[in-house]
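User: Predict the complex.
Assistant: Input components as received:
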Amino acid sequence: MSVFRTLERRIAIVFVGLLALVMLLMLLIVARSGEDIIAAESQRQLAAGARNFSNLIDQDRRQLELAATVLASDFGFREAIATQDRGTVHSVLLNHGYRIGAKVMMVLSLDGQVIVDTQRPGQAARPFPLREMLRAGQLSGRSSGVARMKDGMLYQMVIVPILAPVRVAWVVMGFPVEDAWASEFARASGLDVSVLAVAGGIHASSLPPPLRKALEQAQLTALGEQPQQLTLDGHHYHAVALPFGPQARVLLLRSIEYSQAVFRELERVLAIIAASGVALFVLGSFGLARRIAGPVNALARAARSIEAGDYSHAVTVTAPDEIGQLAASFDSMRTGIEMREQKITRLAYEDTLTGLPNRTRLAEYLAALDPKSAAMVAILDLDRFAPINNALGHPVGDRLLQLIGARLAGLVPARGMLARLWGDEFAFVVEGSDKESARRFAAGLLTTLREPIEVGGQRLDVDGSLGIAFHPADGRNMDVLLRRAELAMYSAKRRQCGYVLAEEVGEGPAPEQLSLIGEMRQALERREFILHYQPKLALASNRIIGAESLLRWQHPVRGMMPPARFIPFAEQTGFIREITPWLLEEVAAQAAIWRKQGISLVLAANLSARDLLNPDLVARMRDLIALHELPPASLCLEITESALMEDPTLSLTHLAELAAIGLKLSIDDYGAGQASLSYLKALPVHELKIDQSFIGSLAASPKDAAIVRSTIALGHALGLTVVAEGIEGEADLAWLREAGCDIGQGYFIARPMSAEAFADWVSAATTTQA
Amino acid sequence: MADRAGHQARRLKSREALLALALACTDVAAGGLIASVRTTAGAPVEDAAIVLEPATGGPRANPRGKATIEQLDREFVPYLTIVQKGTAIDFPNRDPVKHHVYSFSPAKMFEIKLYAGKPAAPVVFDRAGEVVLGCNIHDWMAAYTLVVESPWFAKTDRNGTARIERVPPGAYRLRLWHPRQTAAVAERPLRIGADAQRLDLAIDIAPRPAVNKPPLQADRY
């Protein structure tokens, strides 16, 4: 129904429709019951009118009798009668008849002879024709009735005696029953009055001539004292006929139309009320509906514009009702959503610490670049930020990053961007930049960066390394550009030369390796990385005192991959930062599980240089220990000598913090790197692991044996536990035990194995020993 | 009502006493008539007139002179008065209101207009016949006077009995009349001897119309 589509119309139509229905019903009921009421009312009025009419006739008769009696009592009249003075009697009669409107005036002798008749003066005495009436008068003293006289007219007759003082004669008076008489009675009774001759014809009638004519032709014989319907000239009546003397009847009519007229008027007024009620309702309900629907429509429009992301239009419904409250809530919702969206957008695209754009924003910016237009992407990594952060605390580190961010922001050209990628790494994009301008920009940037900064009352010297890649020469997508710039940055850091262009450090990893990066990411998600454990045997007690966790990759296509195939690459690409947290968590969890099973071992995990330099490492280790409720000394971190040398100073700082927690620290592959003895002396470590290249050739090379023997001595001298790994034969094991080596590790003792297998193996070994 | 009935009874007694005195004073020693008048149904008829007329028109006594018809309590008293022709009748008004006595009867037409107390002159009834008296003020007041030639007449008492005494013997015509007689009764010859004779007579009369007399002093309202 299309008319019901809007709320406004629906409200109006329902309201108006209901009212119209009620009104119509009311009118129908009034009309229906009206007919019955009219019929009943008409009959009732007719009956009342008929009673009234009879009373009026009676009253009239008595009045006529009274008038006649007054005449009969007149002394002069009586004297004239007594003296038989006919002339005087005649004159008196005429006078009285004129006075009271009587047309027939007679004096009768006691024996019923007409002595005087005003209509026939001088005529000889003759018998009074209405003998019955006279006899009734002789019996009861007076009488009256309706009689038709010789002239054909109907008269109301009264006969009263003349007393002098005894009855001496009769006075007869007759009053014509004419139209005037009928009209008078019609007025008094409220009915139409007609007097009909029994023989036919109308003596008198209050009806107007046309109806009178119709009445003459009507068939009336069936009428009686019971009301009946009668139709005259198209008019409807209720009628009764009453006897009126022996020769006439009185027909009383009550117009049904007259009764109906009142009802028609009532119906007309009701119809007007109904129509104006409906009209008012139409106006009122449309007004009301508009007041309801208008704000609702406004709200709907506002909702649509909010849906479209336009929050600028305030909802302006000021009604004080529920709609108004809804609108107010709606508007506060609008501003709330707007604020939250701005906040979300900010959080999504903005680095909360510095207020600079974040990595996501940078990615969008790079994606939006014209593929052909040249742009420079530079990654800046601050040098020695981690030691500052650790030494002066995070708040100072954060403040430093904010200040540097603000300082660098001043360097961003109009068509370019500065983003903070993570930690102390920032990225610039400068559009339309070539190598020359890039070099100038890099030089200027480093100069700006190197200006001393004061944080918390301390003057700090900051330096950084830049790696620069070009769009589209060095790559078109962000991953490639950022990776190449990052590789260049690491190169610059290693060379300590400020900045390096990506093209100077080559393409970086081979395409096979590039795909490896993607696969590693998936591997983490798919849990393809697993840990194997290789036992560590205390040579003196011949007990298993620990195990080294070793990363394996169960590649779905290439099979089980040794760490050498992907760890270096992971370190190189920085993906190791994602692997290490997972690995540390696994190891800590495993330690906890075994501990609950009663296997108390020191589990070792390998850290790369990047891991060690990560400022978050110390906090992470502290959290892990707390989370798994482990004794700190049950975890051991192994760091290669070469990793330490990437940033010896920072490494030393971090190791000190880790040692302070209580973790065991181990120098891995010792002997292959360039650590000086003085540096080694300063390290807060507990263990030296002699590089397995020395162990594998113990039997064959006396020089290596000498190195091992002296290294064991050196380690002991420094208070360190010495571990030999890569033990592959019983002779080597025996030699090392004899040489005083503390712990052995290698295929001869046990291969690396899964956690389950390791648990079984440990139980078996313990049982054998027992 | 009881009071008025008693009053009438007293009045009747005094009238009989008066009549007896009158009879006793006559000097004619002769016969008489005791008539008993009843309706055909046997009820005694009061106020019936019995008149003896000499058959041969013989000696006539002188008129007795005077009679009185009072107006008392707005009624004529007596209801019937029989007088010999030539008698003068007084109409003393004993009521506190005035009366207007009239007669339209051919035997004597007269009227005494509104008067109180005793009228200036009595009315002489000088023709024989029936005279109906009325009062123009009080419609119900009606009285009858029968004027006769003969001096021998009487009217019946409430027992329907009338006595005529000291009637000289001889032939007479007996006339019986009543104001409300339904039909005239024919005269009949009657021989009067030396002794009083008894006679039973019959006449039918209409009942006296009920008088709806308003009280003298209207109800207070």
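Chain A has a mean pLDDT of 85.
Let me know if you want any component modeled separately.
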